[in-house]
Structure formats: C-alpha cells, structure tokens
Amino acid sequence: MIKIEGLCVDFPNFCLKDINLSINRGDFFVLLGPTGSGKTLLLEAIAGLVPVKRGKIYINGIDVTNLPPENRGVSIVYQDLALFPHLTVLENIKYGLHFHKIDKVKAEKRLNWLLDQLKLRPLIGRFPVNLSGGEMQRVALARALMINPSVLLLDEPLSSLDPIFKEEIRGQLKKLHQETGSTFLMVTHDFTDVLFIASRVAVINEGKIEQVGDVEEIFQRPRSRFVANFVEARNILCGYLTGSNNHRYIDTGKIKVEFAENTTENEKKVYFVIRPEDIIVSKIPLQSSARNCYLGRVTEITNRGAIIYLKVDVGNELTAMVTKASFEQMNIREGDSVYLTFKASAVHLF
Amino acid sequence: MRRKKDVFLVVTVICGLLVIGFILLPLLKMFTSPSWENLKAAIQDKKVVKSIWLSIYTAGLAAIISFVVGTPFAYFLARREFFGRKVIESIIDLPMVIPHPVVGIAILSVVGRNYWFGQILSKIGIRVMGSVLGIVTVLTFVGIPFYINTAKDGFESISPRLENVSRSLGASMFSTFLRITFPLAWRSMLVGIVMCSARAISEFGAVVVIAYHPMTAPVMIYERFEAYGLAYSQPVAVLLTLVCLILFLFLRVLSLKHQEGKLIK
Question: Is A144 close to B159, i.e. CB distance below 8 A?
C-alpha cells in the first residue's frame, strides 16, 4: 500500500536518513517518536509537501515520488488542524469536492455520514474561530475523509486536546478507520495512542526508523534502549484469558487480574497494560469496589520530583505512581509491604 | 519614585503634543490660508484638474503594475528560503532610501539616448522622457517596495499548512492561491496597493527629472510656487492633500480591519 525505499530528506538543520517502511492497505499505522524526531517531515514527504533528496515512495504500487501533492490521493490532518479560517465548517468539509470528480449523490451521502459520525451537523454554519478544540479536530477529520483518500495522514491529532476530548477523538478515529477502510498513518509521541488504536508501529528517532513491528512486538521486545525508554514499558504483562462470563480474568501464571473489557474468548494469550497512575498504593487492604488488590514488597523507589514511581513485586512486578505528599505520608521504604489496588476497568487489553 | 514617574509622564505628553502640533500646524495653516474663491478658481482651472487627474491615474497605474508584477514575487519571498534572500530584500528596499532626484537621474541614465536600452526604446518609438510612460516608470520605481513588503507580510501571516492541506485535498498550486491564499491575504494586498499609490501620488523629486511635462500635481505646485509665490500654489496643494487624505483614511480603515482579521486567524 505505502512503500518507502531508502528515503532521504534534507533540511538545513535536520534530515531523514534512509527510511524504509512498508504499510499495508487498511492498516492503522502509528509512527511513534519524540518531538523533533522527523515524524511530521516524513508525513509531509509522503504527502509530497517537501522535496525528497533520495529514495522512492510508492502508494498503491505507483511511484509517487515526483507527483505533486494533489495527485497522490493522500489527505493530511495537521496537529494545528489548519482549518480554512475564511470558510464555514460545511465549506471546509466540502473543500476537496471542488477538485475530485465524485458523483453528487455519493458525495451527499458521504457528507451526511461524516456529519452524523462526527456529530458536526449543528456546527455546519460556524466559522473555525467559533469552535472548540475537539470540534475543530472533528471538522479537520471530516474534511480529510470527505474525498475518500486512500491514505489519511494524521499529525499528532490528539496532542493538543483535553483528556476528555482525547478519549472521544481516539474512539472516533478507531471507528472511522474501521468504517472507511482507508489506510491511516498517524504520528504521535504518546504511547497510549499506540495501545488504543495502532495495528502496527514504527518508532522513529533523529530521522531514523529504530524499529517497526506490531504493537506487542514493540512493547515486549524493544530492540534498542531508546525504544524501551520511549514506550515507557511499564506494567505490560502477558497472560491467558480465563474465567466465566461474570468473572473474567487474565492469568499471568503468578497473579490473576480481573478486567472489564468485553471479550468472550478463552485461553487466548493476551497482552495487557495497567497504567501506573491507575494503581492505588496503601499500607492496609482497601475496602472498595476495585476488583484487583495484591500484597507485595517495594523493590525500587524512583523519585521524579512531584511524583514517585514504586516498583512492587506482587508475583509480577508492577509499577505504581504516587504523589510526593502521599509517599511521605505513608512513609514508604524499599522492602516495605504495600497493597496495590486497581479497578478491572484500568486493565487494558491489546 | 512617584515624582520621577510623574515627571516622565509629563515629558512624554509634552513630546506628544509637540509632534502633533508639528504635523498639524503647517497643514492647518495651509488649509485655512486660501480663500474659498481661490479654491473654487483652482477647482475650475482645467490645468489644475488635469494635473491632479494625471497624478491620480499615473499613481494608479504604478499600483496596478506593482500588483501584477509584485504579487508573485512577494509570494515567492514569503514562502521560500534561499541563499541571498536578505540581499534581495535589501534591493527591494533601495528605492525607499535613495534620494528622489537620484532615482530620476538613475532611470534617466537607463532610458536616455546615451545608453543602449534608451536607444532601443527610441528606435521603436517609445518615449520615456517627458511622457506619461516616464512618469509611470518613476512612480512604479518608488512605489513598488511598499506594495511588495506589505503583500509579503500578508502572505507570511498565513500558515503554509493551510496551503499544504489544500494541496493534499486535490487543489493545484494556482487553485490553492485563488481559494485560500488570496482570500486571506487580499486585505494586505489592498493595503499595499493603497500605500504604493499614496507614495507614488506624492512623488516630486524623481518625476521632475524625468517629466516636467506633462505636469503632475506636485510639479505644478512647485512650478506655481516658483513662478507666482506661496498664495498661488496653496489651492493646488490643498486639493492634492485632500486626495492624499482620502487615500490615507481608506488605508487606515483597511489596516484596522486587517488587524482584526489577523486576530481572528
């Protein structure tokens, strides 16, 4: 679908070096990397918006390296969204139709579908200046998808959003990807995005691809220290789905972890993640609705200023996060016994 | 401390009043000096009307030429980083810093009969010296930096990402310019046109070297002052100033809206 061979892009203070990448049709591919790693530049190179020094880019088997952006069938959604400020929401969404021969009835159908999917109908007469961050994000998505692109490039679409909008847009992206069948290529520096929506991942650093693989592979078998550090491989565990309908859990071999996600499969090997901030640390067992509570020994304390990471051996090693105030109040030392408690809904399968 | 602050405030206000007085006093005096009869006579004087009209339309032509040639160049400068860009920008600014009669002499040395270019023009029957063409050439020379700089600022204020998105949605470079860049930058371009024509309409030093005749309004004011004195030149000066003021007001209104537009973006 997208094939990149030996791509080099030279900029005065930065360059992409020998990028080789293959993205399958219909993938939700995530390019993960820190700020300044060249993610956006790579997207722009695929979209034909920056000159390529060496290498080839193929989309659907066609060499597009020297094609202008308008002939590539690629839409881009920037981090700052780049909505046209002088056009209304509806005009923004329909902008691409001026340049594509799409049957009127089909275009109208698609427009209605996007307006409904992204809940944009009440906003169509507004100008971008009168929209919230989440609304602008949805308009930018609708505008990009309106022309039914074979590839949708997303440049950190979630980074500037409030946590509530983030969850919402993330869900919408996943749904749109499933329903449009287009190939999505998203860049992000947030590994949580990867966990939730990516089918495959490439980690990029200083203009070079460090590792490509599926999500499990990147998290479980990072091939470099950079990748391991970057994906913050904390509390990523592996186990087998088991239990009955009302009592589902994952057996890691050492602990049993209850989860809330809907799956009927049994005996299937799964990877799951519990975010350190979702784990409550206490010196006595908590009487709460949380379904998972384990006693363990503190093996390592990492002070990060306002927050402290505790590594606790509960059979498997789990990392929990506490604030400095809580840490001091509980007077936790290495070797102490503590209880780790988390909700079944804090367990994310991937 | 408080006293020092008060003294500073008083000094700033006094300086402000001095500047305002310095600008307004001569203008007010000039406006109030000619009698109504003299002004009426000036308006009815065909030569005066002709010279003012000549000033307006040559300045307008200079602005149109600046718009046509300057727009693509301003866009290029706003969007491309290249070696020597600063030098190019300095060259564009040159007409603003060169003394005006020198501009006239410089143009004359190219279009005059002693230079090959002037000889070619002469052979094909194009007269620059003492012609409307000469006036327009000089006015374009002095006015075009104002247009290019203002239009460039306007283009620079538009995120290139808007254009990138437009291209990725299927628009060609030209369509993108027409549908995205132009609607967002037109106000800057219009301000540039007004600034260019305001600058051109007031040009005297360079015009007088190239074309004493046909007579533009500034040249006529000078001629009447030299030949008949202050009182005779004042009515023409008042009329020309009124034209310039209308242009200036138009510019202010536009630039205010321009700033509002920038805030919205």
Answer: no
